[in-house]
Amino acid sequence: MEELLLEFQSRMLLFQMNYKRYLFDKVDLSNRLIAIKGVRGVGKTTLLLQFAKFNFPKSSTLYVSMDHVYFYENNLYEMAKEFDNYGGTHLLLDEVHKYPNWSREIKLIYDNLPRLNVVLTSSSVLELYKSESDLSRRMVSYDLHELSFREFLFLETGLELTAHSLSDLMENHVEIAGEILQHFQPLPLFEKYLKVGAYPYFMENEQSYYHKVMTTINLMIEVDIMAVENLRYETIVKFKKLLKAIATSVPFTPNISKLSERIGLSRNSLVESIKTLNKVGIIQELYKDATGIGLLTKPEKLLLNNTNLIYVLANENANIGNIRETFFANQLSCQYHVDLAPKGDFLIDRKFTFEVGGKNKSSKQITGVKNSFIAKDNIEVGFGNIIPLWMFGLLY
Questions:
Q1: Which long-range contacts link 351-358 to residues 24+ away (Cβ below 8 Å)?
Q2: SS (H, E, C) 318-363
Q3: Which of 70, 283, 372, 385 suits a disulfide with 366, CB 3.0-4.6 Å?
Q4: Do you know which PANTHER family this protein is assigned to (predicted)?
């Protein structure tokens, strides 16, 4: 175990990332077993290392990635026992799904080593879904979302803007926009965010950004889903065809019969595939009323999970209406309940109706609807119930 401790200490000496994601201050670190869920590439490893740097005692903390060669010949529980005997207090386990039968040994650690606090991450959201029921009484879970527009702005420009609640935006968006416009023009940076801002990859090399996102998509389908669902290769190809269909469509209301014929899956297999892709965080499935959703209930609208995925999968065929709605649903879903609205596009927390469109979008779809707003693209500042679309990137 000494090699793990030495590697961790060396890594911490080189670790420079001081910017903290929105989730950093929201995690209650007094819990003994914490899971950080999130799709590949959103920054879970960085978050763990920041907990080690800023929150936990250096002399009694250990970070280890669960695909480390150490675990070829050693098991997790025995390592944790040895670390506990060393006086260890905080064990940070990255990519825990890469360790076979991890939930069984985590349960043993929790039950038998009460002095040890464990924070774990997994990119395999499906694997965590499977194991959460076993650990539900012990584990507290948090979701790490993709970068918001606000977070992207800081990493791109160094400008640190305040996060605003939805109610604050609805009531004070004109004043908030006016203050921001004194410092920079948001629209060019917003356009860049929609293309390359959802994942921290852009900080390393913008030219290879789409390649890295495509690699991430392939890993989610070919590794994460395969590990749990045990799919045949031809089914994986059909998953990718489905994603391409969603990416190149106008905001996508699926005709399941036509889509199943186009993709080559039966109706039930197609609906199950959609729900699997939703669970791993590649797509968003939306309903007019999300209560009583069954395993084979078809979604009423399909969107990719973020706008960068559209640009990667659709290339020049990206539809601007799809991009706008995808951005809005993605940013709101981090903290609010998102349904389709009876009139307009989205119903937030079953109370607020939003219509999403370009700067010439009229209000006729929401005329007479209480608590209704228009999220307009290509405007810097709004008025009344018209709010600039970019401002919904300030929510976290």
A1: 352/166, 352/170, 354/328, 356/324, 356/325, 356/328, 356/389, 357/321, 357/324, 358/320, 358/324
A2: CCHHHHHHHHHHHHHHCCCCEEECCCCCEEECCCEEEEEECCCCCC
A3: 372
A4: AAA+ ATPASE DOMAIN-CONTAINING PROTEIN, ATPASE
299 close to 274: Cβ distance less than 8 angstroms: yes
Tokens of 323: 């991009």
* CA–CA separation, 226 and 192 (whole Å): 33
Q: Of 143, 168, 189, which residue sits at a domain end?
A: 143
Q: Shortest CA distance to 346 belongs to which of 369, 362, 368?
A: 369
The verdict on 191 and 106 lying in the same domain is no
Among 143, 162, 179, the domain boundary falls at 143
- Domains of the chain: total: 2
For 138, the domain range is 2-143
pLDDT tens digits in sequence order for the chain, 396 residues long: 899 999 999 999 999 988 999 999 999 999 999 999 999 999 999 999 999 999 999 999 999 999 999 999 999 999 999 999 999 999 999 999 899 989 999 999 999 999 999 999 998 777 777 776 678 789 999 999 999 999 999 999 999 999 999 999 999 999 999 999 999 999 999 999 999 999 999 999 999 999 999 999 999 999 888 877 777 888 899 999 999 999 998 876 788 999 999 999 999 999 999 999 998 899 999 999 766 565 667 899 999 999 999 999 998 889 999 999 999 999 999 999 999 999 999 999 999 999 999 999 999 999 999 999 999 999 999 999 999 999 999 999
From the list 191, 184, 244, 224, the residue with the least C-alpha distance to 378 is: 191
Read off the CATH number of the domain in which 17 is found. 3.40.50.300
State pTM to two decimals: 0.93
